[in-house]
């Protein structure tokens, strides 16, 4: 099975323009992500899919593989589809690796990769929620599953609802899962889902995976116990990441 790892790396960002090129103690964010992905045992190839010449040139300069994609893609999923189309070889699956997690865990990538089968349409990682803070945060997408561990629904609200119980006690009464933003798409399914119009549920929750569920596609979920790395959305997040790196280096 051939699996393509794609790191979408847009230059424009309302909160942090040029974020992929941000310096983290001598290596850019996109370089650190690329190097973490290289530790994966199951990705056949890795490519940075960007819309900016400076990012493309930077990736090539450090020895990475890159491709130029459109500036007009509405999501990383659409950028992954174009990146797949630009590759010379053929691939069974594409893994969408977030372009803002410089400490992404390669074991999580491999966990997702080894779960893939010929009949898998889409796959993603989930994790048990352990704190009320995670449960009630609208920044955390929650997910409920069917008996085959496929996603039934994703929501920014706590789901399932626990009847006749104060929300502070819900975590002791039911099992809750949060979504970990790492996707795998079968090559033919990636072509199909990127042609779908934006759906009503997707608009309401601002979660693109709901478009796929609304249109009958199955999303396999794989549970991970590994902690996610720091996500960098703002210059303040970058300072936290630099502090984290300094702490690691001092030990």
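Q: What amino acid sequence fits the structure above?
A:
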């Amino acid at each position: 099975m051939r699996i393509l790892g794609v790191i979408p790396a847009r230059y424009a960002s309302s909160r942090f323009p040029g974020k992929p090129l941000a310096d983290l103690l001598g290596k850019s964010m996109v370089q650190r992500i690329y190097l973490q992905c290289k530790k994966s045992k199951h990705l056949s190839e890795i490519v940075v899919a960007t819309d900016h010449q400076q990012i493309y040139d930077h990736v090539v300069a450090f020895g990475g593989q890159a491709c130029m994609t459109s500036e007009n893609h509405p999501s990383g999923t659409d950028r992954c589809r174009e990146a797949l189309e630009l590759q010379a070889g053929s691939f069974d699956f594409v893994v969408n690796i977030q372009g803002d997690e410089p400490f992404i865990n390669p074991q999580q990538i491999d966990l997702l990769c080894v779960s893939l089968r010929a009949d898998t349409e889409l796959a993603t990682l989930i994790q048990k929620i352990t704190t009320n803070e995670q449960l009630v945060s609208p920044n955390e997408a929650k997910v409920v599953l069917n008996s085959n561990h496929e996603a039934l629904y994703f929501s920014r609200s706590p789901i399932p609802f626990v009847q006749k119980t104060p929300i502070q006690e819900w975590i002791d009464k039911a099992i809750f899962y949060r979504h970990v933003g790492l996707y795998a798409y079968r090559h033919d399914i990636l072509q199909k889902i990127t042609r779908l119009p934006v759906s009503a549920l997707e608009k309401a929750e601002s979660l693109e995976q709901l478009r796929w569920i609304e249109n009958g596609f199955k999303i396999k979920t794989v549970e991970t116990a590994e902690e996610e790395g720091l996500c960098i959305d703002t210059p303040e997040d970058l300072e936290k990441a630099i502090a984290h790196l300094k702490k690691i280096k001092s030990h």
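Q: And what stands out in the fold?
A: The chain has nine helices and eleven strands.
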